[in-house]
Amino acid sequence: MERQGLEPNDRICLFFPLYHMFGNTCIALTGLLAGSSIVIPSKDFEPASILSAIAKEQCTAIYGSPSMFSALLEHPEFNEKAWASVKKGIVGGAPCPAPLMERLVNELGISGLEVGYGITEASSWVTMTKQDDPIDLRVSTIGYPLPCSEVKIVDPETGERCKSGEKGELCTKGFLMKGYYRMPGATKAAIDDEGWFHTGDLGIMDENGYVKLVGRLKEVIRKAGGIEILPAEIEEVLYLLSDVSQAQVFGFNDKTGKTLIAAFVKVKEGSSLQVETIRKMLASELSGEKIPDYIKIVEDFPVTKSGKIQKFRLAQMAVEQWG
Q1: Does pTM surpass 0.70?
Q2: Are 212 and 300 contained in the same domain?
């Protein structure tokens, strides 16, 4: 609450599901503790209702995933002037592309917009940036641990703590769950004997305690010859194209069992960006083994009600089309 800078005169726009930790704890409970007003525009994520509420209720804080923010900004009823009251909030649930953060902060004036990382098992936020952090720090990291949380990066194979700058699995201690309901095996696999929860997220911690997420252990693309590729490496390059609104890179297996890489790209409205242009740009920035085997321009991505893109469904779509 302190790092978010919430005050009694704030008006929070809440459009996350209340059954989700992001909605009920990170937004609703935090807002109530701060004495802020909470505006709930709709039961589900409905961009038109949300945009109307922001203008009518003069909301000052907004929280959402990158895909939710993109949907709001690209909606036909979006009006930049109606967002003049919005000055703070949090982007969470997935890495925030630099162009999106720059637009929200520099063009719309949401100077206090932060990036947060939280998981249900830890009850709420684990790390968070600061409102006055430079934009490049807000998009390249998930901030540093909150006072209620401990964070370390460990080698997934040995469990040894990594040094600053080394990649490993993010583990946390703090307000952890007691365990998964009636799933003692899963609980034991997730929480080690010293009480550290193993998130499955891969990260790097710098000398100042800021953590950069680089992928998920389960999403690492493993190709023949022991080559390991992080989807985020390719996604970051895709966002160098100004016409790219969202990008998702993932691996999938074809009928022979060969691991292939696919990139699904959503372009900005009115863009004429072509697959061949994307491929040429990737070839100029990446080594050969990291260039996707397939690139597809899509209108949208399958998402959960909390705004997270469902990569497993993208992989299913790729198998159906190219497998």
Answers
A1: yes
A2: no
Cβ neighbours of residue 55 closer than 8 Å, sequence gap 6 or more: 79, 82
CB 109, CB 87: distance < 8 Å: yes
Answer yes or no: do 233 and 278 share one domain: yes
Q: Provide the pLDDT for residue 306.
A: 79
Sheet containing 211-216, strands listed edge to edge, beginning at the edge strand earlier in sequence? 150-154, 167-173, 197-205, 211-216
Q: Which domain holds residue 203?
A: 150-216
Query: Sign of dihedral through CA atoms 300, 301, 302, 304?
Result: negative
Rounded Cα–Cα distance for residues 155 and 5 (Å): 35
Residue pair 246/66 in contact by the 8 Å Cβ criterion: yes
Distance between CA atoms of 120 and 178, rounded to whole angstroms? 12
> What's the rounded mean pLDDT across residues 244-268?
95
d(CA 209, CA 296): 37
The encoded tokens of residue 303 equal: 């998402």
For residue 323, the model assigns a pLDDT of: 79
Tens digits of per-residue pLDDT, 10-25? Answer: 999 999 989 999 999 9
Residue 3 lies in a domain: no
Q: Domain tally for the chain?
A: 3
